[in-house]
Batch of 4 targets.
Target 1
Amino acid sequence: MRPTAPAGPAAGNRTWEKRQCRLIVPDVIWTGLSAHLLGSNLERFAYLLGRAEIHGDRPGRRVVTIRIRHALLLPDAALAVRTPTRVEVAADVSRAVLRTCYEHALSLVDAHSHPGLSAPAIFSGVDRANALETHREFHATIPARPPVAAASLLLTHTGVDGLWFDPDTGRLAPLDFPSVPPSAAPAVAPTAADAPGAGALPGEPPVAADTAADQPLPHRGASAGARP
Ligand SMILES: [Zn+2]
């Protein structure tokens, strides 16, 4: 008997033994995403939405490709929890995003940052637990046809990491992102507040860290008026 892939919820799909997920992010979206996520000393969050397709690139291997079309760079007001080590999206916002995916058969990639100039791009245990829960919820909510996928990205000033949820195994697996340059993190001016334990060292007072990046949603004046 030849070895087979681990049996999962969809073990009947035995044609394919190995699965892989690739994330394709257009440059213009990536630039905006990384500037948003890394432009603060607190964690930030964004959603990427796109289409998924599945194909076999060689016998016995299936590749899921997510092509990102839209980025939702969440303003701080859309976050229920926001600290240097944790970020949580307001429930009504995440529900609205899930509903959009349902209505338009979109795949969903959540992205968040770990601020700090030396933070390694490694998902924390809490991150992985959250990813597993939200990706399972995604697949439980969104019909599997046309194909959809759920994934997570983590950006730091030192790199990028990604996970996707393989619904056939019920597990998280590494995400490939061939469209993302290795040194994807943009140059954001370091500030004293970036250093862990900032304030413990004598020296100059911290410079105001957040500038324009903290105001992604300018208030629209009433003069903008409502269109008929
Ligand atoms: Zn995290």
Target 2
Amino acid sequence: MAVKIITPVTLMKKVKDRMSKSEPIKEMEKTKKRTSRRSFFSLLWIGLGIVALMEFIGVVSAFLMPRKKRGNAGNLGSIIDAGSVDKFPKESVTAFIRGKFYLCRLEDGGFLAVSRKCTHLGCTVPWSEKEKKFVCPCHASAFDIRGAVISPPAPRALDVYHVYIENNMVKVDTGKRVKRGGFRTDQVVYPKKA
Ligand code: FES
């Protein structure tokens, strides 16, 4: 049997051959890794895109959905049960913070629900019990208990909400704010006489 003698030169040649054969394999592995990393990031971006899209759709549809007409008392856009007629003394103003209005009972016993938003630039107008008027803290417009302008710059009376009385209970529909130039007696709602 012939013995194959391996010289240093043939040994180097063999090593070189091996190395040159393993290079493409390494390259392929690298490419594979790169490709899988790339596809992972692509999937991640697609996932994030879908989440963002869903959120956008949710926000848009919530904005476009009609407001509930009847629902939780106290929310704007719903019917608010203010309470029984007797709960409100004549010449009184009761704030309904969540409904964003004041329920005013006039001296003749009639009810009016006025918006707390100033008709000048929209500041919230507080009622001054001492002065018996609404005074805007922004530019000092003043309104009487009926929401009519006493002092400018407010250009018109405070807006009103529809009031109705059912079974001696006062209810306010905050679904629609009604603009008005000034006060008119037909804006006042009276309880039925017993
Ligand atoms: S916002 Fe009320 S007076 Fe200007």
Target 3
Amino acid sequence: MKLRKPDSKGNIIVGTTGILILMLLLMCIFVLSSINYIQNQNIESQANDNFKYIIDDYSTNLEVLGRESIAEATEKVYNGLPVHDSEGQIKKNLDKHLNMKNDEFEDKYDVDLSSEVLSVEASDSPWKVLFRVKLNGEKDDERFSQIIERNATIEGLRDPLPIAKLTIVSGVMAYDDKIHYKTALSAYMLLHDLDSPESYIEATAPMTIKKCPYDPYVHHGDPGVLDDCLDTGYFHESADGSCYLCRLEGKGKCPHYGMEVFIQTHTPLGNESLSCSDHVVFADHYNGEKIDPNDWDSLILDSSHRKKYGLSDYGNATD
Ligand SMILES: [Zn+2]
Ligand SMILES: [Zn+2]
């Protein structure tokens, strides 16, 4: 009994001291690793500052090469080959371009570079595709690593959707900066049991993507605007239309914010048929009517598209 008391006291003291030492150790480790982390951060940002001119030059190149990589995927579609995974295809194209660029930069700046394309995705704007690339570099024992984000515009590229969707064997053709559907769309409509496929024989649509400047779009009801929009062949923003990356895969509809274009019919027929916005023709499949029954080249539109473009009273003014 006499011996146990000092024993348990001793145990308590030893135990408490042990815990205190352990806590002290943990605190030291924490403080040391924090200091180390902050130092590393400083070294990294310092290094990135030193390499800023290289990174800036590389970013500018990324914008150009990103766009070229998209254009190559479009070219593949126009050559009659399917693109099942546009992001993967463009990544592959871009990796090839960047590897060449890395070699070029090694000669130009005497720096070792390696890059990895992290992602190719739809941005908040239907006119731009977002690229994310990780760039690692080393020069004279100094290293940097940076993720570069850059948008590439798709304006000026060809619209891949009609060819990707209908395939080249359908007879759809592209010349004079226009898509000429010939009988391809009517055959497609016949296959899907849609109304008045004959209305879409010889229909045409713009080929090169140009952003419509008549924004807000209700101005299309103003004198001369619709004529100019159709003559130039403008594309329009649309939550229902598909984005460029999904167009490459032949999708008329997608979850991203996209675009739409009018498929213009040239027919004396006045039958009710598909509304001519391309996401309706290729995916949504609902009907509309000619906005001007007396015009062979009139657009066929449903009421919500008439409202969007300010064309609800179009053709009635002269009645
Ligand atoms: Zn327009
Ligand atoms: Zn999409």
Target 4
Amino acid sequence: MTLTFEEQSSDLYSSPYLVDYYDLVAPNSRSVDDASFYWEVYQKLFALRSPTPEDPFVILDVGTGTGRVLHGLESNAINSECVDNAQHMLDKAEMITTGILKNCVSWVHGSALNLREVMDARKHQKVDLLIFSIGSISHLYESGQPEEFLNQASKVLRPRTGRAYVSIYDGSLLNPNKKIAFHQPQGVSELKSAVFASIVYRESDHRGELEGNVKFLKFELEVVDSDNQSVVETNHISMKMRQWLDDELILLSSETDACFVESVRGAHETFYVFKAIETGSE
Ligand SMILES: C[S@@+](CC[C@H](N)C(=O)[O-])C[C@H]1O[C@@H](n2cnc3c(N)ncnc32)[C@H](O)[C@@H]1O
């Protein structure tokens, strides 16, 4: 066996192979079925004002990944800014984007904690619909980060009508009465790449620990060329994900410039809806 020439400790988003693996194992639009929900929200918000070519309806998809949510919208000729802090995810998103969406979507490298800067550099700066999908806010595990995200969101939302839809995934709920279940496949499991010929992904040694409200997820992921069994890349996956108490986000938001509007139950998640606090000067 030829030994590895790439060995890294990483999250799931930091190489083209990892992006491919993520798309194989992550919830997809069929399993989550949030696209129809966001499409309805879009139609409802669109009806609240009369967008013009000079001042179009703008979607900001935060933590867009490979663009799953945008690609899933029923009609996608919507001016969309798609932000992620993982360039490899954005590269794949751009590569798989076709048709009319190509002309109205921008794939922007940036942080959920710096949305003001992201939008300041865009042509249309006010956001009608901000989406932070499938529990991705759990990536903001450091103390104060979810609050900073909400502050940033309220800076870029269109006053009065703009809305942020923030998903908390059921699987990331802390319930002191229940044992937390971790997804820990036994032994070694193997998955065939959908993109790279002859590549398989071997995952093993799943570990999960909970420390306070942070879940530590670790496993080993080898990228193997099945033609000659050589290891192309070895990844020591290590991720920290924030866990939540029921409706904790509402409580946190009371310390921010985001104003809680409502929560909506989805099949596997709760969508928390926020608008910018009205200052009276708008
Ligand atoms: C679970 S994936 C969700 C991808 C996509 N939105 C979806 O629904 O399929 C989370 C994404 O959030 C991105 N992410 C994590 N922390 C971020 C941050 N601070 N700012 C921007 N994006 C972030 C990751 O790179 C990853 O692409």
